[in-house]
Amino acid sequence: MSNIASDGAPLAATPLTRAVLEIDEYASGLGWDQPARLFALVDTAQLRTQEPGLADQLGLGEENAGALTPIEQDELPAGTPLDEFLATIAWPEVIAGCAMTVERLMLPPTAEQSIPEGLDDAALAKWVAAHPERQEVRMTVAVLRNGTRESAVRLRAKDSPTEVLTGADLVPGLADALTATFEA
What we know:
By secondary structure, this protein is an alpha+beta fold. It contains seven helices and six strands, in the order H-E-H-H-E-H-E-H-H-E-E-E-H. It has helices at 15-30, 44-50, 52-57, 82-86, 109-112, 121-130, 172-180; strands spanning 37-43, 68-72, 97-106, 135-144, 149-155, 165-167. Strands 2-1-3-4-5-6 form a six-stranded antiparallel beta sheet. A hairpin with a 4-residue loop joins strand 4 (135-144) and strand 5 (149-155). The protein is globular and about 55 Å long.
């Protein structure tokens, strides 16, 4: 048995990993330079039982048992810092988890030592954007109510489904912020 799907993407072992990769693929289809996007994750079987019309509209059949269905939420408010926005979210019990996709500029660890001191956020962002070693990345992070987490990271320079890095602890800060949306 192969670990690669027919489209060349790696096969995912868990429903949460499959959901993260599905969201990553969706975001990839929208192109780069996109705003952050928030998704509710619902148990597909439960969705079929409670909302059969919606499940049919989404094309979710019996073969999706055990899966998680991502449902994109309204656009995030412009100009609101991500941490402040996430602090305003509380999910109803029917939501099994949530996910977010964001684009950021990242520097290699070696470049962090050369960051000038005393920069405010705007000046730091400008400095990073001008750095020759910067990398543009899209990060998709998902968490479940029980604390399980998964992430996918895609570099703009290697924008391919076979070049997506996955792991539970790739973006711990965002995973922690998403987990906090379930703590009421």
